[in-house]
Automatic annotation (TrEMBL):
This is ABC transporter ATP-binding protein. Residues 7-237 form the ABC transporter domain. The keyword ATP-binding applies. Keywords: ATP-binding, Nucleotide-binding, Transport. GO terms for molecular function: ATP binding. It holds the Pfam family ABC_tran. The keyword Cell division does not apply.
Length: 324
């Protein structure tokens, strides 16, 4: 990528008193890039985000935005804006007043603030809600206002800490699409934190997969999914079958990379169908192979030919191998 580096995290370390934290963090985020920190709870992704925003100090290493170190600056002095899971809107202020608050601190004129507030609300499809209070809005609407408020500060880097996790599935999906549209429209640089792999895959230009305070892999969604660098990444991203080999290594295969045929075929892995489950436009078939169960995804048409207890053969079209 030939775009300039907007954010650079250089050999950053942050440990808590209990020993948890992150170590050896090196990430370059380019201008206009959407980078997601992905991993299970407690892996360190929110720790990194909070050090970027200035809410946590770093033990060592550096954080540079537009080539300038910000590691010793307080949050209000950094060219960042953060959107939290909990919205953090002032309940006693109207939507308009919430959006104007940060601009008033910057001593911007009233006319300019009014224009900016209108622009921000239009950007998140909330025009006409200026006089509403947060308590009169749904969770999704409150999060739209929180995003608009952050964008009006014109940050060099927008930080989002699991902003959609409190929303129900349908609203969360809508908000993802809205955020993707806004990010591309404004070409803003975003660092996003989530434990939801589907969210990360849908939104990101690149994903940073975290585990126990260290980075397991950095790559595009396609690279992370198709070529997971470690067994942890393979198991965390999408569904994966692991077949243990005699040498203790593991062969991994995605359910969609398995072709099932009825009957026993010499040279292929054979087993017996345990369950067939239709899941909308495709079906999941679970096959008992020895003491393991292998999951495969097939078309509904293919599933109609296969019944529980049928003897079947499995052909793997793509696999990964991980050493013991």
């Amino acid at each position: 990528m030939d775009k300039k580096i907007k954010l650079k995290i250089a050999d950053m370390k942050k440990h808590y008193k209990n020993g948890d934290g992150v170590d050896g963090i090196n990430i370059d985020v380019h201008e206009g890039e959407f980078v997601t920190m992905l991993g299970p709870s407690g892996c360190g992704k929110s720790t990194i985000l909070r050090t970027l925003g200035g809410f946590l100090s770093v033990d060592s290493g550096d954080i540079l935005i537009d080539g300038v170190s910000v590691k010793n600056l307080p949050p209000e002095k950094r060219p960042t804006a953060m959107v939290f899971q909990s919205y953090n809107l002032w309940p006693h202020m109207t939507v308009s007043e919430n959006l104007a608050f940060g601009l008033e601190i910057k001593k911007i004129s009233k006319n300019e603030i009014k224009a900016e507030v209108e622009r921000g609300l239009a950007l998140v499809n909330m025009s006409g809600f200026e006089k509403k209070y947060p308590g009169q809005l749904s969770g999704g609407q409150q999060q739209r206002v929180a995003i608009a408020r952050a964008l009006l500060l014109k940050p060099s880097v927008l930080l989002l800490d699991e902003p959609f996790s409190a929303l129900d599935a349908k609203i969360r999906s809508q908000m993802r699409e809205e955020l993707k549209r806004i990010q591309e429209e404004l070409n803003i640089t975003v660092v996003f934190v989530t434990h939801d792999q589907e969210e990360a895959m849908a939104l990101s230009h690149r994903i940073v997969v975290m585990n126990k305070g260290v980075i397991e892999q950095i790559g595009t969604p396609e690279e992370i999914y198709d070529r997971p660098a470690t067994q942890f990444v393979a198991s965390f991203i999408g569904d994966m079958n692991f077949l243990m080999e005699n040498d203790g290594s593991a062969m991994a295969v995605r359910p969609e990379d398995i072709v099932i045929t009825k009957g026993v075929t010499e040279g292929q892995i054979c087993g017996r169908v345990r369950t067939v489950m239709v899941l909308g436009h495709y079906a999941e078939i679970n096959v008992e192979v020895g003491d393991q169960v292998i999951k495969a995804y097939v078309t509904r048409a293919a599933a109609e030919e296969i019944k529980p207890r049928d003897a079947v053969s499995l052909l793997f079209t793509k696999t990964c191998k991980y050493c013991a």
